[in-house]
């Protein structure tokens, strides 16, 4: 099943695995680095953002290292199967991408800054892959929690597309869609949460294009 055609083909709701009514595993209460609760409700004034940018182990670390981020958690989003497992998502039969949920203080780190980090931390032109990681679960995605987030995310995509094209990259394949009831965020298993804090030498497939965002055409450092 892991090497089926669904590695690079999004299943329809009829083709997807049926899933289950409840999560099949427990998750920890608190973030191992930040010390704050993983699950909401979050303190007043915080906002939530959801991003898919390849393997969520390295992606989550990018966000928890950012000032103004209150907590992060990883999960599965944008698919059809309710409460999937990691193995099911990796089979390509659920339609989900690996996602990071970020609870942040917009007075410290605005949503535009998180978008900049998102775009610069991966290659959003690769479709159903990131580097050597191939599959629909590695596709680039932004799931928005308000009309303002949707508009801001689309504007940042348009700006970044211009500089990517100027640098020789193809079109951005990132899906930008509301994180509504049709795209719920399903928590990943406990061992995936803050994986690179628990396993500092663990695999991290995150890598950007080197092109800065959202303005200008200068190459980012590194």
Automatic annotation (TrEMBL):
Reported EC number(s) for this entry are 1.8.4.11
Peptide methionine sulphoxide reductase MsrA domain residues: 50-204
Q: Name one GO molecular function term.
A: peptide-methionine (S)-S-oxide reductase activity
Which residues does UniProt mark as catalytic? 55
Where are the bilayer-spanning segments? none
Recorded hits in InterPro entries, A to Z, give: Met_Sox_Rdtase_MsrA_dom (IPR002569), Met_Sox_Rdtase_MsrA_sf (IPR036509), MsrA_MetSO_reductase (IPR050162)
The family database entries (Pfam families) matched by this protein are listed as: PMSR
HAMAP family, sorted: MsrA
Q: Which PANTHER family match?
A: MITOCHONDRIAL PEPTIDE METHIONINE SULFOXIDE REDUCTASE (PTHR42799)
What the record says about family reads: Belongs to the MsrA Met sulfoxide reductase family.
State the protein's name.
Peptide methionine sulfoxide reductase MsrA
List the source organism: Streptomyces noursei
Organism lineage string: Bacteria, Bacillati, Actinomycetota, Actinomycetes, Kitasatosporales
């Amino acid at each position: 099943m892991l090497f089926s055609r669904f590695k690079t083909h999004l299943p329809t709701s009829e083709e997807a695995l049926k899933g289950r009514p409840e999560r099949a595993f427990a998750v920890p209460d608190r973030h191992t680095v930040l010390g704050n609760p993983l699950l909401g409700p979050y303190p007043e004034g915080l906002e939530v953002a959801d991003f898919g940018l390849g393997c969520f182990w390295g992606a989550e670390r990018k966000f928890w290292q950012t000032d103004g981020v209150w907590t992060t958690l990883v999960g599965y989003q944008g698919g059809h199967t309710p409460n999937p497992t990691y193995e099911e998502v990796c089979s390509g039969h659920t339609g989900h991408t690996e996602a990071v949920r970020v609870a942040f203080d917009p007075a410290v780190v605005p949503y535009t800054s998180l978008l900049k980090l998102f775009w610069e931390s991966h290659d959003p032109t690769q479709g159903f892959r990131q580097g050597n990681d191939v599959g629909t679960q590695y596709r680039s995605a932004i799931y928005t929690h308000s009309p303002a987030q949707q508009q801001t995310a689309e504007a940042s995509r348009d700006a970044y597309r211009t500089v990517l094209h100027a640098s020789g990259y193809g079109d951005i394949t990132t899906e930008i869609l509301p994180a509504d009831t049709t795209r719920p965020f399903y928590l990943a298993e406990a061992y995936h949460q803050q994986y690179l804090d628990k396993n500092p030498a663990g695999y991290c497939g995150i890598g950007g294009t080197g092109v800065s965002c959202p303005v200008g055409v200068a190459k980012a450092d590194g």
